[in-house]
Automatic annotation (TrEMBL):
SUPFAM superfamilies: Aldolase (SSF51569). Keywords: Lyase, Schiff base. GO terms for molecular function: deoxyribose-phosphate aldolase activity. This is Deoxyribose-phosphate aldolase. It comes from Chelativorans salis.
């Protein structure tokens, strides 16, 4: 990350240049309920731990700037709007390739560094435009699929949507689960569904959106996380961004504890993506602190951690500009596209 020497940030990014598509979760050969069925989650304890995480660790000055640069490399820059067009996607991809201005990178001492976002995420029909715009950049194209955001279309159609996006060039697929399977505790059905989706992804990474705001309890969040990972999810993700409650730290804590437990039991590595409701640089720091404290530095890299929060990028730019110049710029100077 950043070396706190004067106003120079040295080599904030090279550690993040990991082998993204070499990390895959093989899952388990069959559903293994004994890994999760007797686990209880204490809501008060989870809320207390989440609240104290961001107060026990203070990230200031040059170190804070370094963490914010790292956060940029973990952002899935996203547009999921009904008015998306090829031109809008191209502009978003241009921002993904160059999230910071040349002047700001120079002021941070990073003029020689290549800084990009972690991925660009779009609807399946927008994938070809993103693939073309990002050609040669090394930035993955992610696509939502499986009847996003509700996930209530028939399974054959959801699987066909995955294959469509992969055939169009998507490197990552963000799927949504059937929440009914969680609410009714039908874990075999959830396992079979996510396993079928993983097979439909082929070489593409699968990020399983649990829609945690819809599945009622932290115990359900833990169990759904475990089942999705057993079925082969390479990432587990909090939300679609469309629920009444999206990414909150107690839910994130529960999910990363599930990742830790699953890793200890299976030896597999699974990534984590909070999404929805995050808008500020402070939010980015809070999630990075959670990952650092609970899973370690390796889970602050884009191969294991993503932030589903495009509007956050503008505030991160403003904070970095303040660090470099001592002045805050107007938010309109940092448009996404």
């Amino acid at each position: 990350m950043v070396l706190p020497e004067k106003h120079t940030i040295i080599k904030a990014v090279p550690e993040a240049e990991s082998q993204l598509h070499e990390v895959r979760n093989r899952g388990t050969a069959a559903l293994t309920p004994e890994w999760f069925e007797d686990v209880a989650v204490n809501l008060s304890a989870a809320e207390r731990r989440a609240a104290t995480l961001v107060t026990r660790r203070s990230v200031k000055k040059a170190w804070q700037a370094a963490w914010l640069v790292r956060a940029i490399t973990c952002i899935d820059l996203t547009t999921l709007a009904g008015e998306d067009t090829a031109g809008r996607v191209r502009r978003l991809c241009a921002k993904a390739k160059k999230p910071l201005s040349s002047e700001l990178q120079a002021a941070l001492g990073l003029e020689e560094e290549r800084i990009t976002t972690g991925a660009v995420c779009v609807y399946p029909t927008m994938v070809p435009h993103a693939v073309k715009a990002l050609e040669g950049s090394g930035i993955p194209v992610a696509s939502v699929a499986t009847g996003f955001p509700a996930g209530l279309t028939p399974l054959p159609q959801r699987l066909a949507e995955i294959r469509y996006a992969v055939d169009a060039g998507a490197d990552e697929i963000d799927i949504v689960i059937t929440r009914e399977h969680v609410l009714t505790q039908n874990w075999p059905a959830l396992y079979d569904e996510v396993r079928a989706m993983r097979e439909a992804c082929g070489p593409a990474h699968l990020k399983a959106i649990l829609a945690t705001g819809d599945i009622a309890t932290l115990r359900n969040v833990y169990r759904a996380s475990m089942v999705a990972m057993q079925a082969g999810a390479d990432f587990i993700k909090t939300s679609t961004g469309k629920e009444a409650v999206n990414a909150v730290l107690p839910v994130g804590l529960t999910m990363v504890r599930a990742i830790r437990d699953y890793g200890a039991l299976s030896g597999e590595i699974v990534g984590f993506k909070p999404a929805g409701g995050m808008r500020t640089a402070k939010d980015a720091l809070s999630w990075l602190i959670l990952m650092k404290e609970e899973l370690g530095t390796a889970w602050t890299m884009p191969d294991r951690f993503r932030l589903g929060a495009s509007t956050m990028l503008g505030d991160i730019e403003r904070q970095l500009e303040h660090y470099a110049t001592g002045r805050y710029s107007a938010s309109y100077r940092h448009a996404l596209a």
